[in-house]
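the two lines:
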Amino acid sequence: MNKNNKNDSSAADISGAGLSRRSLLKGAGLTGAALIAAGSTSAVAQAPAPAAPAARIPLAEAFETLTAAESAALDAFASRLIPSDDGTPGAHEARAVHFIDRGLTGAMAPSRELYAVGLAGLDDCARQRGGVPFAQLPAAEQDAIIDAMTRSAIPEFPMLNAGFFNTVRTHTIEGTFSDPYYGGNRDFVGWALLGYPGVRIASSLEDVQQGSALAPSRQSAYDMPTYTKDPVGPEAVGGASHGH
Amino acid sequence: MATEMPRTDVVVIGLGAVGGVAVLPLVTAGLNVVGLEAGGWMSTRDFAPDEIRNNIRDWPQAVPKAKSEIPTTRANINFEAVQGGGHPMMNGVGGTSLHYWAQSWRLNPWDFKTVGETTRRYGAHRIPVDSTVEDWPFGYEELEPFYDRVEYALGVSGNAGNIQGRLQQGGNPFEGPRTRAYPMPGLRSSPFTDMMGEAARGLGWQPFQGPAAINSEVYGDRPGCFYHGFCDRGGCHVAAKSSTAVTTIPEALKSGRLQVRTHARVLRIVANAEGRVTGVEYLTGNQVMFQPADAVLLASHTYENSRLLLLSRSREFPAGLANNSGQVGQHYLSHHQGAPVIALFPRNLNNWYGLPAQGVAIDEWADDNFDHSDLDFIGGGNLWAHTDRKPISAAKMSTFDLVPNWGAQWKAFIRENADRTNTSYIQKTTLPYRGNYLDLDPLVKDKLGFPVIRITAEFRDNEKRIAAFTQDKMEQWYRAAGAVQIIRTPLGTGMGTSTHAYGGTRMGDNPATNVTDRFGFAHEVKNLGILGASVMGTSGARNPTLTAQALAWRTAEHLAANWNSIAG
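prediction for all of em together
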């Protein structure tokens, strides 16, 4: 809850803004409720958990554009960029590949062909070196290919170059640390990794002073009624899902 | 054949940061105004704290008009100009004032008299030989009342440094005298800006909280800032940012004399055989419309101001409207605001919820606030240390060459350091030069088939020397605050597209070297006024918006006060 009384007393009505005092308070109340609810789990989000087996992406969850082989190669690639072998979630647990898959059907569509060529190249390279697709190579051999890629040093597979590496790295970071609305950063694992306490509607000086010790808000921007584009009733508060 | 709309007194092209300000004095004076805006209205519900949408996917700037007319850029005529990046302009009621950082500086007095003051203090030989810089046709004192009007009409937070000649504690000691204090105190400081302020004082410098068009407390019917962050390229979710969409435009609408026409894409300004403008042709949907008016105020972004003039050819103006002098597009510059210094601190900075306008400034090394006798440049830079951190940009932080940029080591690095880095913002005096200009690209066209603007411009030695000098000062400041790693980025080369774009329709008394007169009306077309940073001949070392808004208010007031001689 915002501690600035000036702000609290301010919102009689923000005219022309389509934002009533009620919806502001509602948003702030949601933040408060979420904080309380998150209290018991915040330690999990904050501190590295003891090495638990990484959760697998549910099989029933379809990709929109990536093929089975592409998604497997990309997930393996992303998992080496932000690995979880230290026992804490990485790109795989954040579902960065789902973020990229969805992005490739929309805002990131210009990169679709790059992914098709690059991921096929990755599997071909892996087969040549180890007789299996990239996802099935031992981690050390995956890392060796990625390292060579960053130096554009795989002449027989010219598509495996620094440009492709940078694109995948950028998108993997975005998928791991973006608002969960876009399909990645599942269960806020990316924000927990950084110590980012999450989006909120207001931040008091006391909030800021706590830095990463502030209890995480654990909400998507679109969980807040303030930003939901469809008008919502009270029954929908807290009920928004991280979907399309 | 264009459909003709009913005549109005004034048509304003663009309802952004400057057009949105100008409409208020016009309607207050009793004039009827039609505002043509290429975009639409947006509300607070559109401004979510969403880094993907605002910062990665370029929303809300990614609207069809600006997106299809991104300028081409080249350093000089030896290169082919190429199109790339985004367009810094956005279409929407409120325009760029919706998503800007909202830093709202007045220029310092020196910026109006760069040539005269440099000559007086150091000799004329210190003006770079290839620069086309002129003194403004008036000094800071002339613009002061209009700065004041805009600060109060919009709502600007800040701590005054000089009220009527009396220096004030906590403000900029180098600012020109102001009539009265800001309408609101400066934004809240943060643990990080407090730390930087203390370090600056330890160096003998005078740090202060910079001014922002963001409410620090309730102002009128709008609340104070909620400090949730996401102000960089995002609109404000509680309308605490004083964009024209929530201030002067709604105020002007109350008069009943302003008509806002959204999704109106201006094609050309029409002139008659007497060399006067008669109105504006625009496209809405697939219909071409003509809006007749007695006066036209061109209030687009710098790039679009020059482009629309160059596209508005006629028998009287074969090289473009108001361009028989060949001056449209000349004296272009984009602000040298790159070449930052990046610091790594040994502890968390607690910067997760800061705003870019919530920062601490140092003006000691800006303008002529220090002795240049033994230096090889004129001007300087304003140092700005601000809070602003979002998760994706935090994860993309520099690795300071300490670890690879992927894998287990990188993950451990960002886990430890995501909240320990800071990137400075240093705005530097930038001059106009021969060979730096805007014109129409000979090849690249927008979706309607009109040429996009072509930028031919590069920074020269003066800008690069300021960049190196101010990087020294910034590194000194960061080190004093405890930084353990420093990266100094390259000094800059080409002047690409920028939100801080100036010139192209420069203001000045000499019609041979300036497009507009001292009041912002075209020397060649008496009833055409031009608003925006395109009339500014110098950049100063700080953000242009407030100055462009003060000039816009002044031009609008001048039009109303001299209606019969200008529009009659």
